[in-house]
Amino acid sequence: MAVKMKNASGMIEISNEVIATVVGGAATDVFGIVGMASKNQIKDNINEILRKENYSRGVVVRQEENGIAVDVYTIISYGTKISEVSRNVQEKVKYNLETMLGITANSVNVFVQGVRVLPD
Question: pTM surpassing 0.85?
Fold first, then answer.
């Protein structure tokens, strides 16, 4: 599935993998995020941090009438305030989607799949 946008010159299609890479990159840049998690941990049998090439397993993109809705599955660092980290992820994802791809994110839902203690 791809997000389709129409402009004066024609039609633009952006694949969900591209959107997932932008979203995953934005989310992992936020302080307090350890990494991305799989949206189907039991089905995928994965309880680990996803690498850049697998960000599409931790991001769900749904096209809406005038933008998209994004679900981001994350793992957060122990000792950080979950509500603040999640809000920062929402803001950064919205900003990166608008500046890099020209897509408006109507909603960014952050799901915390786990908390990890980072080694010193």
Answer: no
